[in-house]
């Protein structure tokens, strides 16, 4: 039996490692009888006790068996290791994250280079200095009270949400929030949820996985077609009232009222996805739909656009009747969201740093949008930029005679720019349109990205 | 119409707030016609424009409607707010967290007062200084590569896990990990999972919610009865091999081998819950079962005992065939776990602070266990402390003639001590036994808690 003992580690642990390795790579097959501890000790120049202890450890771990009269053998269950196939190693390369292209104007992400790292560390330090010991244990599944109280004040002040800290559920990101809602609706007998025909397909998948069927609501220049809700027999509807994604329109006042009336008349639930409600540039933001009817509208907010998606913090403001079943599902999902980030965000909000960051980003995005609109007006006068002055994306509509969406995406890629089009979000128009996320690049790369976009769109 | 305008805010926003409040509390009923902007401006001594703008904002938000010829009215959808009932406010008081009693020896939590706050803040700062911008976006759903690499090295070194970073899935706590596994097993046709008859009932509930039936495996002094696995027709088995919770025994070498052989023979999956594998006091810890057969054993580890549950970080080391379906479920659950904590933990591990913290806690818990055992030997010589010298709990068996488990729990409560018994974890013995978590109290309270326990158990 050949064993390679590394000289660095202790003798006993070196011997254990060598024996495990020999079993793993198949040199010692299951059933093989090992030398007696006395014999092996002599061979290796070790104390017999060292070998006996190593054998004992490996017996306890199940690598070896020791039976009276049959000596020490390699256990029948020990199997040689199989190498990991490269397919797994390569299956998740920067998924959803990066692009191999130098410039990125795909929507859905804020400028990650602006994440307030220093303020976040400072808030973490402050939170750590204050938090009671119990905060690090299993606490309220709704989330830390410090954060729920801060959010209630913030959402009421900034978004007109009627938020009681008791009715806020902190979630590990928007995907979790929507999945938990889907499960609760399904558990209460719900079968179908209406979603905007234009949007991220992931949301639909998550809702279906949670047990609901989905029906698409057409989207026009007034937002989702609430009028057609009555016909689809939905138990709930998911809307982006402040800023439809990706079309960029706001839900019209009449449809806001109609959505709430639908909920009231049918007992249905309206879910308001307020993903970028803080970012409006031409006027005061339209307040949350939830404020109109908190008994039937679920408000869903997130730090993914205001801070960064990696923080994975989102929140639901719930009608009272949904709180308990949501908490039950939350406990099954992950018991409670991680506390340190919650405490840090509460510090940021209460101390004013969150408002300052949002204001700073608002002027930055507004400036980028202005530059984008004026650059395209000069360099690609044929296209039309649509969508309200809000958020961090615009739709670039393509006039007759222009190359199609797909051709332009390819042309942009050849110029080093990643950009997507309406088809990716359910758009069915023949020409298509580009969806341009001007929030995505770091500041220093925005000019070059915009230049590439103009070049791709030049007539 | 009586409106209370607060003088602090801007006039327009003050008017908006006053109007919303009036609708909310029912003073302005749906359908009510408002004064013209000119009339209201005169009444309130405001510029007409201010009133018109406020009306416009509230129309956009759906509070009011404005139609040619019919003036401005309160929208039909706007509903008065209902106050939150106190039942919701009171439904989740310190759930699972606290006790109203001064001393707490319930198991399941480490000493939260020892959470390394300073080291955590320092690790967060270091992580923030290093992290690429992309880390704050949507990244690999398996978790940050920095953490997966750190864990692979750590788990291999400390727990004998054969861990490839590509096959590690970082989860938002153990409950999520086990729920995702349950879903994947069910999705692949699995119907039944065997679990140890003694344990947390929450785990069973989560597995059932994920779509599996559960069957109890008896637990004796050699751990779970693997021999009975063949009879129950399970597709998977969930075990605590290093330290059964709550009985405190280790799975015997024969049963370790038998578990792996069962998996190999039936295609079943063994899930190894290694919740406190770092804490063994009388000998080197028994290595992970996963090391024996990584193709069929899922290793589940967590920071809940080594650091704190509130961090909500756990990890699965997966057989290759389970990685892709698990990632799919993870994406539906919360897309990826929050990044800042992941990066901080990676820093702690790579920089050695994690090992130092575990060592420090190991000697602290060992000392507490020694004090507990020796105090009971003197003060309550009739009882028998069982379970290997590991983790942060012991079982206190009650001899004939002693009060029952329930009576002792009551007696302890009267002495100010919270403690639980075997019945809470599925124990069926007539006498019962106490399950004492000596890790729970802060250091300064341990002596008093132990004193209370001795008093409760005194003959």
What can you see in these coordinates?
- The structure is a homodimer.
- With about 450 residues, chain A is an alpha/beta fold.
- Chain A folds into three domains: about 10-75, Winged helix-like DNA-binding domain superfamily/Winged helix DNA-binding domain (Arc Repressor Mutant, subunit A, Orthogonal Bundle); about 105-110 and about 355-455, Aspartate Aminotransferase, domain 1, CATH 3.90.1150.10; about 115-350, 3-Layer(aba) Sandwich (Aspartate Aminotransferase, domain 2), CATH 3.40.640.
- The first copy, chain A, is built from 15 helices and 17 strands.
- Chain A has helices spanning about 10-25, 35-45, 50-60, 85-90, 115-130, 145-160, 175-185, 200-210, 230, 255-265, 320-335, 340-350, 355-380, 405-415, 445-455; strands at about 65, 70-75, 105, 170, 190-195, 215, 220, 225, 235-240, 270-275, 295-300, 315, 385, 395, 415-420, 420, 435.
- The first copy, chain A, has a seven-stranded mixed sheet with strand order 4-12-11-10-9-5-6, sandwiched between helices. A four-stranded antiparallel sheet of chain A has the order 13-14-17-16, covered by helices on one side. In chain A, strands 1-2 form a two-stranded antiparallel sheet.
- In chain A, helix 6 crosses helix 12 and helix 14 crosses helix 15.
- Chain A starts with 10 loop residues before the first helix and ends with a helix.
- Mean pLDDT of chain A is about 90; it is low at about 95.
- At the A-B interface, helix 3, helix 5, helix 7, helix 8 and helix 10 of A face helix 1, helix 3, helix 5, helix 7 and helix 8 of B.
């Amino acid at each position: 039996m050949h064993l390679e003992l590394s000289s660095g580690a202790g003798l006993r642990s070196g011997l254990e490692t060598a024996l495990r390795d020999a079993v793993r790579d198949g040199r010692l097959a299951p059933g093989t009888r090992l030398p007696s501890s006395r014999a092996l000790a002599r061979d290796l120049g070790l104390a017999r006790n060292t070998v006996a202890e190593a054998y004992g450890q490996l017996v306890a771990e199940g690598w070896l068996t020791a039976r009276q009269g049959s000596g020490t053998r390699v256990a029948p269950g020990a199997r040689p290791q199989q190498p990991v196939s490269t397919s797994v190693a390569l299956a998740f390369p920067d998924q959803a994250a990066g692009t191999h292209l130098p410039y990125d104007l795909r929507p859905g992400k804020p400028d990650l280079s602006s994440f307030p790292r220093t303020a976040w560390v400072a808030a973490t330090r402050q939170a750590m200095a204050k938090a009671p010991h119990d905060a690090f244990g299993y606490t309220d599944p709704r989330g830390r009270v410090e954060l729920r109280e801060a959010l209630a004040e913030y959402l009421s002040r900034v978004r007109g949400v009627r938020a009681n800290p008791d009715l806020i559920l902190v979630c590990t990101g928007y995907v979790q929030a929507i999945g938990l809602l889907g499960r609760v609706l399904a558990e209460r007998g719900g079968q179908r949820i209406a979603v905007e025909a234009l949007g991220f397909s992931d949301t639909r998948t998550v809702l279906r996985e949670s047990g609901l069927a989905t029906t698409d609501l057409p989207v026009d220049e007034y937002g989702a077609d609430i009028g057609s809700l009555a016909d689809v027999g939905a138990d709930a509807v998911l809307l982006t009232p402040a800023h439809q994604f990706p079309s960029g329109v706001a839900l019209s006042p009449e449809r806001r009222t109609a959505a709430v009336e639908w909920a009231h008349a049918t007992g249905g639930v309206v879910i308001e996805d307020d993903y970028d409600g803080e970012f409006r540039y031409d006027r005061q933001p339209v307040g949350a739909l939830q404020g109109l009817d908190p008994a039937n509208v679920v408000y869903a907010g997130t730090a993914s656009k205001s801070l960064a998606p990696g923080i994975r913090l989102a929140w639901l403001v719930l009608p009272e009747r949904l709180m308990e079943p949501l908490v039950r599902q939350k406990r099954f999902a992950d018991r409670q969201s991680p506390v340190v980030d919650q405490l840090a965000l509460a510090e940021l909000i209460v101390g004013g740093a969150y408002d300052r960051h949002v204001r700073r980003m608002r002027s930055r995005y507004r400036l980028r949008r202005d530059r984008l609109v004026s650059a395209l007006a000069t360099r690609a006068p044929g296209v039309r930029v649509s969508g309200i002055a809000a958020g961090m994306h615009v739709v670039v509509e393509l006039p007759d005679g222009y190359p199609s969406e797909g051709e332009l995406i390819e042309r942009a890629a050849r110029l080093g720019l990643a950009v997507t089009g309406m088809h990716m979000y359910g758009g069915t128009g023949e020409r298509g349109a580009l969806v341009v996320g001007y929030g995505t690049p770091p500041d220093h790369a925005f000019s070059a990205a915009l230049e590439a976009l103009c070049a791709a769109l030049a007539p």
